[in-house]
Amino acid sequence: MTRDGQPALRAAIVAIGNEMLGPLRQDTNSLWITTRLEELGIPVVRKSIVADDPDAIGRELSFVATNAALVFTTGGLGPTADDVTVPAVARALGLALSRNEPYLASMRERFARRGIRMPTVNEKQADFLVGARVLENPRGTAPGFWIEQDGVEYIVLPGVPSEMREIMADRVLPKLKERAGQAVSRRRVLRISGMGESAVEELVSAVYEKWKEDPITILAAPGEVQLHLKTAGLAEEAERRLDAMEADFRAALGARIFGRDEEELAASLGRLLRGSGRTLAVAESCTGGMVSALVTDIPGSSDYFLGSVVPYANSAKRDLLDVSEETLRVHGAVSEEAARDMARGARARFDADLAVAVTGIAGPDGGTPEKPVGRVFFAVEDRDGRSIAKRRDFIGDRPAVRRSASLYALELVRRWQERLEE
Questions:
Q1: Mean pLDDT in residue range 223-237
Q2: In the predicted model, what is the mean pLDDT of the chain?
Q3: Do residues 252 and 293 both lie within one domain?
Q4: What is the domain count for the chain?
């Protein structure tokens, strides 16, 4: 730690590439690097994306060096004309480039082993930063570099995720771990479904206050709310503190928490169904098969998932799920009554222990003042004929409504299953 209480090592990440400034590509490398650095107790104080422009790269490097002792760059090490990171870093730091003839020969040999003549444009990848440590790249032809100047270390990495990760894991992180000391940073994510962000915060406000010295963030994600818990210290101490924090939040939220860290809602439900030996069937209209897709995304879901019916037309609801003519005529296909009939029909058709049904108006058309776009009805029924129905009004465009409704359907089944386990 420094005298002002800040970590001795702080990092910045600069992702380089025109493609990441457009709508089609995302910078996932920074997320991975941040996770690995956090594990070592090294905070990331800035992330940025700049174009394949030597002037822009130089300006960004100059700026981030004022606040970080470790500066990572990813991307722009390839052979094409728009790959300008190495000469840009050289110019920004006042370094020379030197062509490494042994490395050039090894590249040619690498291509030759595959029966391919190396294109001339690849030769630029043998231009090394003079004075830098070369970070060998076993997966590609673009090596990385590590150089220190004026108390700031610059770690230049390729943008291909598999190449960047291997160089980091083998050649960078072990060195940083030696210097980071025993203090680590640990993060844990608690995931809640079926509630809004403000409703969750209302329930956990007292827990927030108790743990106010630790960074706790509440985030709204599609179909769920996440609580991000973070603490720092010696590894065992940090884990014990996270355990205590999690216990307090679980006491406040109970079964509303469906999973931790990377566990998806469908996986949480699958774990409960498999453990109880119960089976599930689905009837879904406005979600168009998305509920079933989420369930079957989980490996081994055939242990508990029997099948689904996707009846868009009223005739399909009637013929495949025995939704009554009276229900459709009096209440309509988008109604609690229709959802209950659909759940009953799906459970019977598949002889399942549980069935969930979804019917609604995903939009953008089809809404009325009585049944606006985003209104969705749900029902769950079990083998004993016990059932529950819910109505929700979701906001957003068609994909958002469909996904929110699909996740809420899974949450209803999960809550039902939790009650059965009590």
A1: 89
A2: 94
A3: no
A4: 3
Judge if 303 and 376 occupy the same domain.
yes
Instruction: Return the closest-CA partner of residue 242 out of 188, 182, 185.
Output: 188
pLDDT tens digits for 160-191? 999 999 999 999 999 999 887 777 788 899 99
Characterize the bridge pairing of strands 354-360 and 280-284.
parallel
Indicate whether 203 belongs to any domain.
Answer: yes
Q: pTM value?
A: 0.73
Q: Which domain holds residue 350?
A: 267-421
